[in-house]
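Sample A.
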Amino acid sequence: MAASLNRELEMTYSTDFRRRVIARVQSGDSKSAACRLFGISRSTLHSWLNRADLSPSQGGFRHRKLDRRDFERHVAEHPDALQRERAAHFRVSTSSIRHALKRMGATRKKNRPATAKGNPQAASSTSRT
């Protein structure tokens, strides 16, 4: 996410540059010619023309229902909980749980129960004599 944020900041045009483009259009150049000259898209120019304030706007931030710290604590305390159980606990969808686990780098793998093949003691305790 940090990489995409840096890319967006690098692509922000200065207020001076925006004013020069708009002045060019207002002086009589066509919008297409101004866009070609300054190397911007028409949609960018249209959004600048429709805005009263030309300063760069702050990007939107996503509100998350799932608190990262609470979720990480829950995963640590209940490592074998199913995604649907986590979803019910936090009152979110299973896809939200899947995305949160992916962001954490956690896998969906569970601890396997002891089997006769992997654990000889389990085999002797479960075998019938």
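Sample B, a different protein:
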Amino acid sequence: MLLFKYDHRSMLVSRGDPIMFCCNISSINATQITWIKGRSYFTHAVSLNQTFSNFSSPRVTIDHNLPTKLSISSAQPEDAGLYTCRVSAVLGFNSMKWNLTVSENPEATHWSWYLVYILTPAIGLLLCGVMSVVCLCRGHWTRTPDEDLDDSNIMTSALYHVQLGGEVRGASANCFVAHLQSYAAYEDKSHRE
């Protein structure tokens, strides 16, 4: 009488994670234990106590003393795929399969999205601030001929009031008056000499 038993599982791990597949099948009366991943295989003949393998990755290891466990030290995308453990006995075999999926490291993905969501608005705000400062300073540094004419009219009016002894009121006018008084005194002094 032949016995066949299959067990299929899926496993999702992140890149760099250690993995251990445990073939939870009784190896009592087992004649052979085999691990298969694509074209790679590991076979342990129990009666001969011999092992044959063509797994080439040093990260994939199978303990010869406990051949029902397969370990991967640091999962990489090339490790993804279907892993099969098959325990053969005189009356049949039992098999377990794992479909391994290796995803990118979630922390690395998290940081990249963090930069996109935080850095973009921060740069935008910085650019808006710089542009505001440039616009304000540009308006202060550059004057149109009309603005120069307005300043000239104010100074003429203030000078007129100072020379005629008229009273000029207001804080800004007082500032002009003080400036113009010193200017008038200078002009008066230069005309006398």
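Observation for Sample B: The CA atoms of residues 69 and 110 lie 33 Å apart.
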